[in-house]
Structures are given as C-alpha cells and as structure tokens.
Amino acid sequence: MNRLLHILALCIALPVSAADLPRPLTDDDFIAFDPQKAKIGQLLFYDKILSGNRNISCGTCHHHDLGGTDGLSLGIGEGGEGLGPKRTAGVGEDRIEKRIPRNAPALWNLGAKNIEVLFHDGRLSESDIFGNGFNSPAEEWLPEGLETILAAQALFPLTARFEMAGAPKENEVGGAINDRIDNAWPIIALAVRTIPDYGLMFVKAFDDINTPEDVEIVDIANALAAFMGTEWKNFDSSFDLFLAGDETALTPAAKAGMDLFYGDAGCASCHAGPLMSDQKFHALALPAFGPGKTRRFDPQPRDVGFMGESDRLEDAYRFRTPMLRNVALTAPYGHNGAYPTLEGIVRHHLDPITAIDRWDRDLANLPSVPWLERADFAVQYDTREMVRQRRKVDITPVQISDSEVANLVAFLESLTGKTANSLPLGRPETVPSGLTVD
User: Fold this and answer.
1) What is the tens place of the pLDDT at every residue in 98-109?
2) Which residues contact 281 (CB under 8 A, 6 or more apart)?
3) How many Å apart are CA 354 and CA 31, to the nearest integer?
4) pLDDT at position 20
5) I need a surface site. Which of 40, 53, 85, 101 has the fewest CB within 10 A?
C-alpha cells in the first residue's frame, strides 16, 4: 500500500508537460530531396519567369528576409511593386484589382513526410478521388507525376489570377486559365525549358529528362518542392534542444510557457505532435476583413474556411492549424494576418470573443490601396454574417495572468531555430531568365 501511494505521489508531482511533450524531430521525419533539384528550385522560386506578366515570383510573397512570408496581413500580388511591408499596389492599368484573400502561409517544415493537407482551407490533400493522388482545385486536370503534396501545392499560385497569373487580357497564361486551369501549365513549362541554363540543369538533375524539350510542369513543381522542402527544414530551436535532452536549453520563462502550452492553457490540444499541428481545422472567430475566399454563390466578401472545400456546414469558419516552429519570424498571425504580435494572437486564442470585441482595424497590416478601402472591411457591416462567425468558436476560454501570457510568448519565441536566418541556399543574386530578383 505504501509503495502504491509512493507511485501515485510521483505521478502527481510529475510536470504535466513531461507526459505530453512530443518526441524530437529527426531527419527521418522529412522527405529526402535531391540537392540538384533543390538548386533548380531555388532559382525558379525567385524567377519571375513563372508569372504571367513576368513581374512576380514565389519569393516575392515568401521571401528569405521575411521568414518565408511577406510581412503583410493580406498580400499585394500580381501588379504590385516592391517587397514586404513596403510593397505598393501599383499604378494605372497595372494596379491590383484586389488584395490576396489570405495571409501568405509560412514554409517551415513543409517537407515533412506526414503532411497530408495544405492551404489555410485544406483545399489540397492527399487522396485518390481523382486518380492522380490528390484532391485539389484542379480535380482530374492535375497532371500526374507530382512526387509530393508540396509539389502539387507549388502549381496553384502559378495559375491564380491575382497571385502570379494575371488577367486574361494581359498575357497568355492569364488567358489560358480563363478556359481551364491545366491549359496554363504547358505555357509556363515552355517558358522555362527554352532558357538554356534551365534546360541543361534539368537534364543533369532528372534521370527521366534527356533533352530540355522533355521538361514539363511536373518537373518544375518537383524542383520547387525540393527547394522548399530542404530550405525551410528547421528544427534546431531551444525547444528542440530541450526535447533532445538539454534541460538547460529553455529560459525559466520559456519553460514555464511550455508547461502552460502543454498543460492548463490547452494549446497542445490542436498544436499537437512533433510538427505542433494536428493538421485539422478549427474556428477561432478571428476578426474578418479583406475580400475573403468566396464561393461562387456567396453574395458578400466572406471567408468560410474549410467549408469551402468540404461543403459541410459544420466546417464553416474553420481553418487549418499552423505548425509553429519559427513562428516568431512569420508575423502577422492568423489566416488573414489579423494580429501583428505573438501576444495578440495568444490572447485571442485564450478568449476569442473578448479579443474580437477589442480588436482595432489599425492592427491589420494593409498597405494603402485607396480604391479598395471601402471593400476592405465591408464584411464587418453584414450583421448576420458577423453573428454567424461569432457563434462558431471551437475554443473554450482560458483565464491566465499577464505574466503567464508573457511566458507563453517566451515559449513561442524559443521555437526559433538557431539556423533559421542562415538557410542552406538563400536568395540567389541572379536567375537564368535575367529578370530582376526581389
């Protein structure tokens, strides 16, 4: 009996985090991409040759200097000028027609083997529903040969009118996607493979490519995935050192925040596992603004999240749980970048309705676009829509002190990798097309 009481006492004394902490990440958790393909992907990632109007690259909105994002709540896509928070909306006929509906997602650790769903609303997932390995906006038109879900993801910004493709009247790519999404990919592939340096690099790196004429869009996507999957693989933070057994790696504040994260604050109920995401969808009642990701029959700008993919009412306003390593480098936060600081998004998670009542429009980092100002917050004047969004909250409020909030922020900051600002390849100075590099 005394021995049983002793065992129970030990269990009670054991910190809650010790039982709930994830196992450490290792290289085995990640896809092993070919370095030669990654090098091609690095150049393509920053090459505006992939855009319809030759004026924007993947790196414009996912830049090394900005932690793989753009630093904006809602991005300025095709037609904009400049980089990051200083990016402007363009002028004249080339100016943007609308903001990008959602915050540019971070790229950290997207090369992990167990990632099964991507995008804020989950519109890309591993599935054989269309016979090509994926459930995606391209449905049966998605080309075969994509090696990973990350490669599939790489195709969609290229064919998004307001991201990289441009309008139908402006260029051949924009015109092609106006008919059918897969009509644009051969045009992009042709533009790449007819650049001599790219053609030679593809022949050297890909076993099944014998001449530059063999390069197809799937090869471009696989190269981009190889770059993203290796470049942003990062798990050498203080927290990772702690998980590996270094009990001195975390500061006292970060350690206290970790105990809250995996304990009373309940953060790990969604940010679970080694990647700190359950890859599921949850409604947080984040402040609504911007053009939204509307469906064809939506009469107003709104964003219904995962319901747009699933068509199930119960999925309304739910968004994918993001992974958290290097989160301190990827502000602003939320699917629409509603909060500029970690403290802000933490407080929202602790009590969404109170937070949304206190939220101020000035917190949104939206570069000035005078012709869109009336539309930026139009959804907030739809009282019925606002009621619907406030009713759908998957978080139970948690009361903690200001000092405990500060400890949670310290823990999130401890997730920044030691090498997060010195990645293997970085941004190239030049690209084979000769176009400017942002």
Assistant:
1) 999 999 999 999
2) 122, 305, 306, 315, 318, 319, 320, 321
3) 42
4) 80
5) 85
Distance in angstroms (rounded) separating the CA atoms of residues 153 and 139: 13
> Do 238-413 and 33-69+105-231 have the same topology in CATH?
yes
Residue 374 has pLDDT above 50, yes or no: yes
Q: Which residue shows structure tokens 């709540």?
A: 73
Give the neighbor-by-neighbor strand order of the sheet with 134-135: 117-118, 124-126, 134-135
Instruction: Report whether pLDDT(4) > 90.
Output: no
Asked if 93 contacts 278 with a C-beta cutoff of 8 angstroms, the reply is no
Element containing residue 153 per DSSP (H, E): helix 149-158
Q: What is the maximum alpha-carbon separation in the chain?
A: 83
Structural fold of domain 33-69+105-231? Cytochrome Bc1 Complex; Chain D, domain 2 (1.10.760)
Architecture category of domain 238-413 in CATH = Orthogonal Bundle (1.10)
Please state the rounded mean pLDDT for residues 184-212. 98
Shortest CA distance to 399 belongs to which of 348, 350, 349? 350
Backbone angles phi, psi at 110, to 5 degrees: -75, -5
CA distance 314 to 306: 9
Preceding omega of 274 cis (within 30 degrees of 0):
no
Instruction: Give Cα separations from 275 to 37, 279, 322, 418, 423 (angstroms).
Output: 25, 9, 9, 17, 19
What residue segments make up the domains of the chain, in order of their start?
Answer: 33-69+105-231, 238-413
pLDDT band at residue 14 under the 50/70/90 scheme: very low
The torsion angles phi and psi of 117, rounded to 5 degrees, stand at -150, 140
Give me the pLDDT at residue 18, please: 55
Q: What pLDDT, in 10s, does the model give residues 220-248?
A: 999 999 999 999 999 999 999 999 999 99
